[in-house]
Amino acid sequence: MDSRATNFLFSQTWNDPNCLPAILGGKPIFTEPIHIVRPRFPNAFHIADNFNSALVKGQVTNHGRFVRAFEKVLAELLGVYVATCNNGQSALMLMLRAAGIDSGEVIVPSYTFCATPHAVKWCGAKPVFADIDQNTFCLEPKDVESRITPETRAILAVDLYGIACDYEKLNSLGVQYNLKVLYDSAPAFGTKVNKSFIGGSGDAQSFSFHATKAFTTMEGGCVASSNHELIERVVALRNFGQEQRGDCYEAGINAKMPEICALIGLEHLNGLNSVLLRRSEVARKYTEYFGCHEGFRTPKVPANQQPSWLYYPVLVKSDVLGLNRNQLVKALAAENVYVRTYFDLPCHLMSAYKQAEPTNLPVTNSVADSVISLPVYNDMTNNECERIIEAIDRIVNHSERVSLLCTR
Ligand code: T4K
Fold first, then answer.
1. What's the Cα-to-Cα distance from 379 to each of 17, 30, 41, 359, rounded to whole Å?
2. CA separation for the pair 19, 355 (Å, rounded)
3. How far apart are the CA of 99 and the centre of ligand 1, in A?
4. Residues having CB within 6 Å of any atom of ligand 1
5. Helix/strand/coil for 219
6. Nearest Cα to 336, choosing from 17, 26, 40?
7. Angle at the Cα of 223 (from 222 to 226), degrees rounded to 5?
8. pLDDT in tens, the chain (408 residues)
9. How far is ligand 1, taken at its centre, from the CA of residue 113, in Å?
10. Nearest CA residue ID for atom 40, ligand 1
11. Number of C-alpha atoms within 13 angstroms, CB side, residue 281?
């Protein structure tokens, strides 16, 4: 470990019982549980008048005035056309349909939430899994290219953890092979590339505003695109496929955002920039420790990006630490820190997608085997972040004993 990481060695002595990890009998670092997510919502008082007026008027859904206002502000912020939806999954499915995907193959990462390939399947196409970049955990463009066939219709990349994909390379693959390029940006609302909010890359991007996200409307999501026709198609599809005069050109679903969600979204947008700054600061602190600890590997984000950091992913090098990922997770729980191992079952190994022939995804497999997601809250204090690091530091400093205990 180099000297910067040792700055985080919190003046402990090896045998001091106060500094023993809780799993070895020490005092837990947190008395209250630290969960992976701590959503913060606006005070109900702030939206009460508007919500009440919606209730009094009786217009609570079906493209009401607050949804329209929310879409207008989102469109200004992202600099493209925007259609809201009732969740990120419906936004993703409708984005695919509106881009004309209903058959053939769509290249997706396996290292993602199951919602990504599910959406492809629901649209009648076949997800084809490609490997990820070992630094960003997003689709690796060269591997994507190697999986393009005459059946390929689209690339559906994911901005996982809020880290943006290599838009330039993926978009140029789209041009070169005449494919749609779509982004499942569910985890990444608020991420900036070249100082601008993402939303206008490829043919379209979809976002989630779920309660677990950095920016949330409780449930909700949107599709963003510079293509007005595509957004108009999403608008029809989310309302049963009805066009303005009641005719249906295709079968849609009900995926409309209710007024209450739009009101929460409008209120949340006020604090968006300060929330993003806080999340960046938390990620910076994690990077400071894990980035120079030889027992861990951190994502490497291109300099022109400011991710919204849904979570902070860190890879555990068990051969160096003498402690594996699952043992670390168990020992952290004893400290009252409940981290997650998101995407440790990559989609290509899920029953819905498992094939007789093994899929060659070496980076995906190794990341999935060693990753933990650390919490990044909109209001996480420096102290909380430092104590999470301290909890990990204590455990890895006693890795041999912790490992022995956790294998029993
Ligand atoms: N594409 C991608 C790449 C995605 O990651 C997702 C969703 C989608 C598409 C689809 O977007 P949505 O349709 O969901 O808008 C979560 C979320 O449900 C899901 O949005 C997310 N990705 C996925 C990665 O994870 P869990 O399994 O983590 O949720 P749960 O219930 O275990 O809660 C996590 C923590 O959050 C717990 O500590 C409790 C806390 N929590 C949760 C909720 C729901 C709260 O404090 N309040 C809450 O209301 O799924």
1. 31, 17, 11, 40
2. 48
3. 26
4. 35-37, 39, 87-89, 92, 112-113, 115-116, 158, 184, 186-187, 208, 210-212, 221, 342
5. coil
6. 26
7. 140
8. 544 444 444 444 445 656 899 999 999 999 999 999 999 888 888 999 999 999 989 989 999 999 999 999 999 999 999 999 999 999 999 999 999 999 999 999 999 999 999 999 999 999 999 999 999 999 999 999 999 999 999 999 999 999 999 999 999 999 999 999 999 999 999 999 999 999 999 999 999 999 999 999 999 999 999 999 999 999 999 999 998 777 898 999 999 999 999 999 999 999 999 999 999 999 999 999 999 999 999 999 999 999 999 999 999 999 999 999 999 999 999 999 999 999 999 999 999 998 877 789 999 999 999 999 999 999 999 999 999 999 999 999 999 999 999 875
9. 10
10. 37
11. 16
Q: How many residues does the chain have?
A: 408
Instruction: For 327-347, give one letter per residue: b (16+ CB within 10 A) or e.
Output: bbbebbebbbbebbbbbbebb
CA 212 – ligand 1 centroid, Å: 5
